[in-house]
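Hi! If you just cloned this repository, the fastest way to understand the data is to look at a raw example. We've pasted two of them here, unedited. The first protein comes first, obviously.
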Amino acid sequence: MDTAIRATGLGKRYGEHHALRGVDLEVAAGTVLGLLGPNGAGKTTTVRLLATLLEPDQGRAEVAGFDVVRQQRQVRRRIGLAGQYAAVDGLLTGRENLELLGRLLHLGRKGARARAAELLTRFELEGAAEKPAQTYSGGMRRRLDLAAALIGRPEVLFLDEPTTGLDPASRLVLWEMVREQVAQGVTVLLTTQYLEEADFLADRILVIDTGQVIAEGTPDELKRKVGEEWLEVGVSTDAALPQALAVLAPVAAAQPEVDRTGRRITVQLADGIGTIAAAAVALESAGVPVTDFALRRPSLDDVFFHLTGRGTQVGRAPEEGAQPLAQGPEGEAERDEKAEKAAPGEKAGRTENGEKAEREPVAAATARTGDEQ
């Protein structure tokens, strides 16, 4: 299978701050790679380097077979980018946003109009096509943003935390649209803090922290790093907890965890199905008043905690309009921007309009070099 994205030893530094420290990655064509990590881990920096918005201080990378430093024009013709916030012009209608980008990408007036109509239909935005984008809901703006990233039929699509702030229903819609693109052969590199998003979309996951890759594999492979299934047992009274602990201790592979407030015991099993049956019989024989008895596989939450030693509240999607919780006082994009301003001569990759500008340099550069090879 062809490799759509390949990076070796990528490093980026802003003064004394190391945003990336020797990142290696490969993404097979037509698959999804999820970059998982907390704020400040280096996810956005990785995307900017691969999308030619920044240049690495060390290492090299190829996207769609072209070097991201020496062949930036060829890379830009073949990629789409949706940043952390919807990069659409609120004063233009949905249709005008798409047609404008299409013309910048040299589709021509007729071609841009046809491509815009096609994407408005595919993303279920026909009814709002003539309304200003500033009147769209968060989910609609995100769909328009993804459509804009696809206007040039990219081979590779970069999605930097694409569902930040969306409600659960809007997230599911966007996930299905991403899957549709992958089914058509598009390669996707997805950054996310939401563990369930990585589990749902990614074929493979890179866990990145403090600018370094700390684990890689399929979701199931990463879950197996944590261990086997866990048995969760709930009891009806506080007095039953010591009794249940004594009964479950012989079948536990490690020290059981006790939630006294919820009257719940979590046990890592030593021997799969046989252990479950033995535990159920032992609890019943001892007369333990059980209110809940459930088998739970390790989740990406467990993987994240196991690998980083941090709590995983960063991985849970917030309610509509909320932002994901950060691990520090400022997010990665904000910290990178400050570092860029503090490092004269660095190629910033951002403008005073912030995230809105992330895709514009790609489109504008492509427009300026449309006839060059």
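Ok, and the second one:
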Amino acid sequence: MLTYTYKAKNIGGNEFSGQMQGASRREVIVALKQKGFYILAIEPLSKASALFASNTQFGKGISVKDKAVFTHQLAILLKAGMKLTTALKTLSTQTKNKNLRAVISQINNDIEQSCSLSEAMAKHSKVFSRTYTAIIEAAEHTGSMSETLFVLDQQLKKQASVNSRIVSALIYPAFLLAVSILVIAVLMGFVIPKFIELFVNANQSLPAPTKILMVMTGIIKKYWWSILLILSAAGAILASARKNKKFRIIFDSLTLNLPMAGKIIRKIQTARFSRTLGSLLKGGVLILKAVDTAKGATNNTAFRTHISAIEEKITKGYTMANAMKEQEYFGEMTVSMVAVGEETAMLPEMLLEIAEMYDNESENAINSITTLLGPLMILILGLLIGFVVLAILMPIFETSTIVG
């Protein structure tokens, strides 16, 4: 059996892409025509390409919001009693995002070739995370697909909301930083050199601020390319070093222990882990598999090592709370809430509460910091511009005094 990738139009005239296996090109064309598709292009994939195509071809341009909408619509259609393949066909024609349409169409094709929904989604790891597919797999075993999809929908919406609020909070400080750099670059590159040339030609004694400004401007004007090269090289070295596992653990450990920022990062990581673990347990996934899968929801390697330690303790018979208690990045509040959840048999619900609590706390902390950052950056920019103006005006005032 060979794998073919194709472009086609459905009855509604919408273009989409997909893959299908068949003994020959003709067999795939016949199968596609039987589904009512008009074929625009069809090409065989090499074995290597077929192995990786589903992960690389259609993963771009699909946001968390797009996935949340798809998940919600699929849940509604399945709850209404529609067959899975029929629901996926319907969504493949109605979804606005063309990349997601292609993914849905390909998932449907895989299901028609005897794949389960979780297996079909797992082929698109850039779109559907390991956590997402693990929850779907659990739902397949428990027979609660539509209910599980509604839970996933809520989690995706929450994730999109948190990400959006954090980005919104950081936009204003980032804008001020960009403006500050631009203003300083224009002053140093075009305005100040003209005044310096004027002062040099006048052969007058210059005050200390003006001399400092002349030296700074001279260095920037003469060695700007070297400065850019050093900064670029430092960035490239840091990016390359982060690919090294040992270095990344050290770097991520430092970020977790930064003053102020470290506490916020720990709360964000705890919220991600707790929300994912709560969703998995609620979906019927066993505790060890759930912890291992939820570990992937965190992007801090140092934090992950602590989750791995929790996983190991659970295999030795520890409760989740006792295992967490021995890890420094989980606070007393988290441990206490997990202990209550275990005692009352409401661990999934308690984990989701922890996630909600830390999301709110981290968002409030970020808002507080960014609220202070704005005025602070304006003050710094004002002081820099004030220093430049002072350095320029002092020689002019001295010249006026001498002339007077």
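That's it. A detail worth noticing about the second one: Residues 2-128 form one domain.
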